[in-house]
Amino acid sequence: MLWTSGKRPGGLGFATAGLLGALLMTPAALAQTNFYEGKTVKVVVGFPPGGGYDLYARAFARFLPAHIPGNPAVIVSNMPGAGSLVAANYIYNLAPKDGTEIGSVETFVPFEAFYNGAGVRFDPAKYNWLGALNAEMTTCAVWHDSKIKSFQDLLTTQVPFGSTGSGAPPVLEPKIMNAVLGTKIKLVNGYQGMADIFVAMENREVDGSCGINWSTLTSTRADWMAQGKLRLITQNAVDRAPYVAQLPLLLDFAKTPEQKGVLLLLAAPNRVGRPYMAPPGIPADRVAILRKAFDDTVADPEFIVEAERLKLALNAVKGEDVLAVFQEAGKMDKALVDEMLRARQD
């Protein structure tokens, strides 16, 4: 049935219906609708300024206010430490539980809870997941004059690779590669994020790094890619990314079902790349507001244009789907989890 002249069936005009709806709203509902008016929402990013996570968050934060009722101010606050584990713990335990603070952490860090990660003080299934900006792949890359020319060279030649905090891909991926596939990567720890590791590569303090998000390369080092300053070695994903289809998967080097099982676990977090979450304990209606705001922002044509300008790849995942991934991870086969734990400790 078609509605004409701005009226619904039965002769109730849209304006009248809207007025009646407003009159019927409870004071609590009205207060909730106006909660964010005059407020400031903080986006806590677990890395220093200048890296890929920071660039994504600052672009996202510019468009988010328009999609939250009350149009609050949105600011970005950097909280680096342990590959964003510090920020993950903060959001879970210390951030206000009223919907005024959300977090952006490294994709792999929430999965640390399933592997008895050092310093983990959260249950990933209890965060209020808002969504993920970019399901993607990670890669290993070396400086162009490194003696490492291919993945096979990593099996015979020891080279230093830069890494960050426990559980972050620049630590986790090479440790698993060493333990499961026999590579000879020497980890140099202590870098705050990929921006620092890239500087170390350029200064030849390290040869390369693993666990580099593809979107970090394209958004912060596109010039290096164009100039041939970086050599990509392999990609960590379940399926080859079409934009680097010639680059072998880590899975391609598995020789046994057990090795493949561990490498599949290693690739799983990339299904929810660049996730955003709010603390547990937030009122359900505010969680709904934030999730809708996330979905509306990533679909905002102006945000999409800005992301393209900044070379920020977008492949968004809804909050409910991010939660489902963590719930699924909580049911992982114990034998595989134990194998992963052994590999990580080597």
Which descriptors would you attach to this protein?
16% strand, three-stranded antiparallel beta sheet, D-Maltodextrin-Binding Protein, domain 2, 346 residues, alpha/beta, 2 domains, 13 helices, disordered N terminus
Based on secondary structure, the structural category is: alpha/beta
Name the poorly predicted regions: 1-23
Count of individual beta strands: 11
Spatial order of strands in the largest sheet: 2-1-3-10-4-11
Q: Compute the CA-based radius of gyration.
A: 22 Å
CATH 2nd-level architecture of the largest domain: 3-Layer(aba) Sandwich
Helicity, as a percent range:
25-40%
Approximate shape = globular
β-sheet strand percentage: 15-25%
CATH class of the largest domain: Alpha Beta
CATH superfamily of the largest domain: Bordetella uptake gene, domain 1
Mean pLDDT reading: 89
Description of the molecule:
This protein is 38% helix and 16% strand. The chain is of the alpha/beta class and 346 residues long. It has 2 domains: 37-135 and 271-332, D-Maltodextrin-Binding Protein, domain 2 (3-Layer(aba) Sandwich), CATH 3.40.190.150; 138-269, 3-Layer(aba) Sandwich (D-Maltodextrin-Binding Protein, domain 2). It has a 6-stranded mixed β-sheet with strand order 2-1-3-10-4-11, sandwiched between helices. Helix 3 runs antiparallel to helix 11 and helix 5 (169-181) packs across helix 13. The longest helix is centred in the last third of the chain and has 15 residues, at 284-298. It is globular. The N and C termini lie far apart (67 Å). Mean pLDDT is 89; it is low at 1-23.
